[in-house]
Structure formats: structure tokens, C-alpha cells
Amino acid sequence: MTKYLSSGLIVALLVFLKTPSKADSIPEIAMIQISAPISHGSSASPVMDETGQVFGIATLGRAEGQNLNFAIPVERVLSAPLMESPSEQVACAALPTPAIDAKAPFDSGNAFFDKKEYNKAISAFTEAIRLDPNNALAYCNRGRAYVNKGDYDKAIRDFNEAIRLDPRLALAHNGRGVAYDSQGKFDQAVNDYSDAIRLDPNLAKAYYNRGIAYSNQGNLDKAISDYNEAIRLDPNSADAFINRGNAYSKQGKFDQAVSDYNDAIRLDSNYARAYNNRGIAYGKQGKYAKAISDFTEAIRLDPNLVPAYNNRGTAYAEQGNLDKADADFATAKRLKAGQ
To answer: What is the pTM (predicted TM-score) of this model?
Structure first.
């Protein structure tokens, strides 16, 4: 009989008997005290009458230092709830959670994003969201992919959901700021970048992006201040040097602008836009030969960079070299028509 009444069943029964009801009252338990001796290890053995009919299950108790021998009525054993077997518990624990399931498509989405395959990234993040609807980062990164596709409304919806799920996710505030900035909503962009900075004061890209928004608003001093902070946090950001140089150039501070473009080129010698912008600063200073040299290098690095042709044409014209100027203007017009 003992092989049918497992220790697991007895544990379940004891838990059931010892647990108060919702009304905080202990259930009235009918116990059968028996005179037959019960040795250690005999708990859960059947107790039978003289006909061999099982009427109880043996258990032990103690009171005032005395061993008391009891049997639990068999009816209560048969009606008591059972606990899960160890195998059932393991099976339940082995089931993967949605968050674990979502990791693979989430990682795939990041990989596709890094390769600029934004449609594939969006599909992967969408699958991650299906498996884990509370994954704020999946919404955030899908929003970033939508931004890079130019679908700003969808991006904003994703960033809104990411922020709803995790209001302290600085990356989502920063991403929504980029979407607003791209729509020309500079005030909203500045607010989002400021929230991102408040949540993560070391987020260099938030300072950088707010600097761009301030520059778009014509607030160059604030823009330069933000670029300063972005550069302090990330001294290897060629973009931050270029944009601070642009702000200095707009203020007529061409020496400072050239210095920043020099740093950008030092950090990335293949950055065509840095050569183009430095050429503009040289041109403003009347240094046309240096300007033409920079525009030529920009064109070598990026043969489709239309502004570089126009800028070099302007520099040639300032030198009186109208044939070369006309050739550059014609190339710029042709390239622009094909874009």
C-alpha cells in the first residue's frame, strides 16, 4: 500500500490541513487516535480493521512530551488536493518565457539595423514585440529603424509606446526627438532631448542632437554649448566637431570653424563633408586655393557630393577661372537631376 501513497501526497495533505481558510478559521479535522504502536518511518502506512478494510492512514504527533498515534480518515486522504509531481514542476519551469523567446528576433533586428537593412530590422523587432509586448527596447529600436526610413509618424508612435512602457528609457526620448527634429518640430525635439539628458546625463548623442535642434532654431550659442558637452563625453565624435564648426562658421568665427573641421578630418580622414565644409570656411576667408583643394578632395571621396561641385565652381569663379567654374556647375546640375 505504501507504494501507492507517496510522500508527495502526504506533504500535500499536511499543507492542506495546516492552511487556514479564507475566513481565517482552522477546518475541523477528524483524527482517529489509535493504540497500535507506530515506528519511525511508518507514517503513510494503511490502518485496517479486522476485515482488512483500510479506514485510515497512519501519522504521528506529539503533545506534552508524549508520542500520540493517529490515523487520518481515508475519506479525507481521497478528497485532499494533490501537489504537482517533481516532473510536472520541471516541465513548467522549462517552458521559455516570452522575454527569452523575444531575444533572438530582437538581436536579429539590431544586426539588420547595423547593416542598414531597415525593413528586415523592422520585421525582426515586430516579431520580438509579438513575443514580448512589454519590451520597451524593441519598440524603441523599431522606432529608430522607422526614422532612418523617413517614416516619422510610425517612429513617433513606437517611441510613445516605449516611453509608456518605460518612462525612464532615455534612448526613446532621444529617438522621438530625432523624429520631431526631422519633421521641423524643433521645440518638441528640444524638449525630448532635454528629457533624455535629464534621465541620462552622460548620453552624448542627446547633447549632440539638441545642439542640432538649437542650431535649426538659430540659437547658435546654445548649440555650441551642447556640442561642447557632446565632445567632452565623446571626444572621438567627428560629427560633433563638424557641427560645432558649422555653428562657428555661421557666427563668422572661421578660424574656430577650421580648427573643428581639422579635428573631424583627424578623426575620420575619409569624411567628405568635413573637407567640403572646411573648404567653405577657407572660401569665406578668401583662401580660394585651399578651398579648391578641399572641395577636390571631397569630390574624390564622394563623386556624387553635389554641394562640393557647386562650391568649387564658386571658388574657381572667384579666381576668374570661368571655364572650370562652368564645368563644375554643369556637373552639379546633372548630378542633382539624377538624384
So the answer is: 0.69
